[in-house]
Amino acid sequence: MPHPGYRRLYTALRTLRPVGAPGSSVEVVRASVGAAVGLGLTGLTFFVVSAHVDAALYLVAPFGATAVLLFAAPSSPLAQPWPVVVGNTSAALVGITVTPLMASSIARVCVAVAVTVAVMLTLRAVHPPAGAVAMTVALAPEAGHSFGFLFALVPVAVGTLLLVIVAAIYGRITRHHYPLRQFESAPAAVERIGLTESELHDILARYEQSLNLGVADLARLVGAAEIQAAGHRTEPIVAGDIMSTDLVTVRPTASVNELVDLFHRHEFTCLPVVHPADRLAGVVFQIHLLVRLRESSIKGRLDTLFRRGNARERSAVCAADIMDVGSPTASVRTPVAALLPLLAASDCDAVPILDDDIIVGIVTQTDLIAALARHTVSESQVSITESFQDARQAHCLS
């Protein structure tokens, strides 16, 4: 039996291992490119506005730490616009105020960072890089003396705001939610977890996690845990068991008229768009087609009003122009529990099922509801049978 001291050492060493799931290669590239784009556009803006003065003078070092949070952890409460902008700006103000009061650089750093922490907690604007902002000002008193309190505005407040704006635009382009979605905008399926927003706030406060996790994120995690637990109570079902295999697909060159005809004939809500050999290119959702037809109608009326455009140009729109290339997909071995949150989103009516990029089926909301209903009925029948057997045994014993 191992000595207790060895067990304690092993436990201590385990705390040094990496925490959290490893990032995918796509996420690594997305975050690193985003940080480069954010800092680059911020520096370029300062370069243009400051009459081509060296922009590096305005890119203070803590901006690098802010960029890490904005682009690598955009869902963190510490990376949201209020704590980022207010945290950095208040830290600069604290540093500028404290610096002239003390001759010792060590004392300036300690007091500036300590006061910054207190101010951020009071303003509910905790942003770790703000501590580095206060420290930077305390270690460079000449900069604070030259710029004065203007330093808190330019470059700190303006530079931070530019980073936030770039992060929001970049998040939309790369299909990430930034700023963090509020509880009211969380998917309806997640809101049905039976807990109110105030109760979720209380849970975060009770376990001192309010700085690490948002209310909407907690709601989604609880909902996902319930779905996973529900999957344990039934036989494991995978997408291949419930998917529709009688597919109707279109090529990227399919015209709007062809799409309308197929939607009308089959009463589908979506149509997979495939390349040769059935490789998935995207999905045309009915709602996207309706929006495009409405836009074309408005454009047509404007073209008529201003006597421009022609019917050939308006009829040139095809499936490739309308299809969604970022809709979620799954494999035949994907558990149904993993499909539930995807199909619960209001903008997703179906999930294509792929086998090495080749579409082999599709799971719609109707398929999922039917599968869950069948398993619910099966479980009820099993429960009734077990109860009947228990009653018979009890009767025989009596």
Report on the structure:
- It is built from 18 helices and 5 strands.
- The protein is mostly helical and 398 residues long.
- The chain folds into 3 domains: 149 residues; 49 residues, no CATH class; 135 residues, Roll (CBS-domain), CATH 3.10.580.
- Strand 1 and strand 2 form a beta hairpin.
Shape: globular
The value of Rg in angstroms is 29 Å
Overall mean pLDDT stands at 79
Q: Which percent band covers the strand fraction?
A: 5-15%
Number of spatially distinct domains: 3
Largest sheet data: 3 strands, mixed
Strand order of the largest sheet: 3-4-5
Low-confidence parts, pLDDT < 50 over ≥5 residues? Answer: 185-192, 306-314, 394-398
Distance from first to last alpha carbon: 51 Å
Q: Helix fraction?
A: 55-70%
Q: N-to-C SSE series?
A: HHHHHHHHHHHHHEEHHHEHEEH
Structural class: mainly alpha
Annotation field: number of helices: 18
Number of strand elements: 5
